[in-house]
Amino acid sequence: MEKFHAAPNSRRAVLGSLLALAAPGAVHAAARRKAPLPPPLVTVLGDSITAGLGLTQDRALPAWLQRTLDAMKIQARVFGFGAIGDTTRAGLSRVERIPPETAVCVVALGGNDLLQGADPSWTRENLRAIVTRLKARGVRVVLAGMRAPTLLGIDYARRFTEVYPALAREEGVFYAPDFFTGVIGVARYMQSDGIHPNAEGARIIAERLAPVVAKALKG
User: Do strands 41-46 and 102-108 pair parallel, antiparallel, or not at all (unpaired)?
Assistant: First the structure.
């Protein structure tokens, strides 16, 4: 019977390939190289609106933001980090707990400051501290602005409303203006408590935030 003899160069190539595959960690390294990177993480740091009070999670703000970004063909994973009742100070106490892989953080806080009649300077300094800590971690920030109603007093409303665009300019972060305007106070977009958006209201808010989030993701 005729025996097959591979050419010396061919034998060396085959042996080299087998040795490479047998090397410790070679298979795992190859698998790691082929594994696609996960989409960047967008964390929404907020209060009960972010937490979806009164709504199922698939109809809350983070879920609508995910769907809107998906429809825009923007690769991202949205994580809602909302806590019911959070003021800007409470949000500051949680900022270090946002996921470490967060690429963009939407800061959507201040509604409970308004409900408590907090001094706008107090709100500004809390927000500034949040933004500063996020930037120090290399996280791109989207600051969601909030317009205070004049029924709280014209001067107070002006000072509170100006906190957001002024801080965004000073800190050089992305700004989403008045994300709640046109939803709050409009019965068809609000739950019966008159404070929290219903699913349609949450969808509108998400659609307003999404273009700014998309810009932040692109850097």
Answer: parallel
Helix (H) or strand (E) holding 4: none
Q: Which of 121, 127, 126 is CA-nearest to residue 160?
A: 121
Q: Locate tokens 């989409």: which residue?
A: 39
Smallest CA-to-CA distance from 197 within 150, 16, 208 is with: 208
- Identify the CA nearest to 105 among candidates 73, 69, 78: 78
| Catalytic residue IDs | 48, 193, 196
Burial class (CB in 10 A: 0-12, 13-18, 19+), 36: exposed
Taking 3-state DSSP, the helix, strand and coil percentages for the chain, each rounded to the nearest 5, stand at 55, 15, 35
Quickly list DSSP for 22-52.
Answer: HSTTHHHHHHHHHSPPPPPEEEEEESHHHHT
Q: Among 39-43, 76-80, 141-145, 180-184, which is the least confidently predicted range?
A: 180-184
pLDDT tens for residues 157-167? 999 999 999 99
Sequence-ordered strand ranges (E) for 114-211 = 140-144, 174-176
**Which pLDDT does position 41 carry in this prediction?**
98
> Distance between CA 109 and CA 88 in Å, rounded?
6
Distance CA 91, CA 103 (A): 18
CB atoms under 10 Å from CB of 180, counted, come to: 21
